[in-house]
Amino acid sequence: MCALKLVSDSVPRVADKLFQRKYIALGRIVTHWSDIMGAELAQKTQPLKIHYRKAQRKGDKPQATLEIAASSANASLLIMKKGVLLEKMNHIFGEAWITDLKFVHIPANLSDKGKKRTASKSMDAGEKKALTSMLDMVEDIEIKERLERFGQAFFKNKDHR
User: Fold this and answer.
1) Angle between helices 141-157 and 125-135 (to 10 degrees)
2) SS3 label, residue 52
3) Residue 145, Cβ neighbours under 10 Å: how many?
């Protein structure tokens, strides 16, 4: 009988050198993300990918640019901290393999904590009656409750189409 093995044990043996270098480096960054960015900014940003460029001349080092996803407001703040962030990365990893940072303006790590729900239109008597008559033949209580919630959401949002 064959024992189950972790995929993480097999991938490094299968992947070639370029694949290993690129994704292991990104994995190291993700692992130390809160150390690099700080606890507050680590929740509002996330590393996306690393772009590698070959050296221009023989003696030069290859360049690596890390793309970071952040909201526009946080990206503006991070641009000011770019030098400090590069120094932190070099200090944590002990080498200067990330040479530049690029900030991509997209929502990263969205949460509903700060959002307030707006009051929505309630169902009228005719819609409630139609919904209950449609759900009378459903016997399973759990499915009936889910369908009822779906129907309520449908009737509340039908004017928005």
Assistant:
1) 150
2) strand
3) 12
DSSP 8-state assignment for residue 95: S
Q: For 8-63, how does the pLDDT look when each residue is reduced to its tens digit (9 = 90+)? A: 666 556 655 555 566 677 778 888 888 999 989 888 898 988 888 888 888 888 88
Q: Which is nearest to 128 in space by CA: 152, 94, 102?
A: 152
pTM greater than the 0.70 cutoff = no
Q: Where do the H-state alpha helices sit in 32-140?
A: 33-37, 39-44, 72-80, 82-93, 125-135
Whether 30 and 96 map to the same domain: the answer is: yes
- Residue 135: inside a domain, yes or no? yes
Residue ranges of alpha helices (H) inside the chain are 7-14, 17-31, 33-37, 39-44, 72-80, 82-93, 125-135, 141-157
